[in-house]
Design brief:
Blueprint: H1 4-10, H2 13-27, H3 30-39, H4 45-69, H5 94-100, H6 107-121, H7 126-149, H8 152-161, H9 168-181, H10 183-186, H11 191-200, E1 204-206, E2 212-214, H12 216-227
Antiparallel strand pairs: 1-2
Helix pairs in contact: 2-4, 3-4, 3-7, 4-6, 4-7, 6-7, 8-9
């Protein structure tokens, strides 16, 4: 887990401000709020906004960690690959995180509202309530990020991988067709970079026998697309 000093070296303060604003804006989008509401019955829109801000604070640190570890190649401007946002972390330094976190005047109010929501909706397991809120926000945001940057060709590949494992040569045909149909977009975007986007999101994996297969998270992402009525035809390239 990178230290705060390392993060400061990675992100200029101006970029950090913009990045945080984008994160908060995404978390507060109505689609994400609706996801949270599905886990918190009988909560008003005002409550949903308060909860969303709380989730945003948690997600922010994970995204900063992602920003530090993200590998940006010269030709990768077309897609932003993230690391594993959903994997458990056993090295999270809570003391350092809270020491350097912005101490908002709204902190106490949000804490009180969260406790009230837990008492109202899940009084016998408040910790479970908090975890569901956090998990819903992180999973939703992680898949929203994948959806924002994934290419049509990659979704088509994943759809076929959901049926059967493919050889690397068969996988390559999906890239080659997309590159043939969109030569300008793919001119500086290699097959390895195209594959790395999916691997960095843990959507596919290489099997010991040399075949490429979809992961459980990849299958879950396809279910996410179905849940929101999204398809490969809504993506470019």
């Amino acid at each position: 887990m990178p230290s705060w000093e390392q993060l400061k070296k990675t992100l200029e303060w101006a970029q950090l401000t913009t990045f945080v604003a984008d994160v908060i804006s995404s978390i507060l989008s109505w689609k994400v709020v609706k996801k949270l509401l599905s886990y918190v019955p009988h909560v008003s829109e005002d409550w949903a906004i308060i909860i969303s801000w709380s989730v945003a604070a948690f997600v922010l640190f994970a995204l900063l960690w992602w920003q530090q570890r993200r590998k940006l190649g010269q030709n990768q401007s077309t897609q932003n690959a993230t690391t594993n946002l959903i994997a458990p972390s056993t090295t999270f330094d809570a003391a350092t995180f809270f020491k350097n976190a912005y101490n908002s005047a709204l902190y106490k109010e949000i804490e009180d509202n969260f406790r009230a929501a837990a008492a109202q909706n899940q009084p016998n397991d408040r910790e479970g309530f908090y975890l569901k809120i956090i998990a819903a926000g992180i999973i939703g945001y992680a898949f929203d990020i994948v959806w924002a940057y994934i290419f049509k060709s990659q979704i088509l590949l994943m759809t076929e991988l959901n049926r059967r494992a493919l050889s690397l040569a068969e996988v390559r045909t999906y890239y080659d067709k997309a590159a043939s149909d969109n030569p300008e977009r793919y001119a500086a975007y290699s097959f390895d970079q195209w594959m790395e986007f999916m691997k960095s999101h843990v959507l596919l994996t290489h099997l010991p026998n040399g075949l490429v297969a979809i992961t459980e998270r990849g299958k879950d992402f396809l279910k996410y697309l179905l849940h929101w009525g999204r398809s490969a035809d809504q993506r470019l390239y």
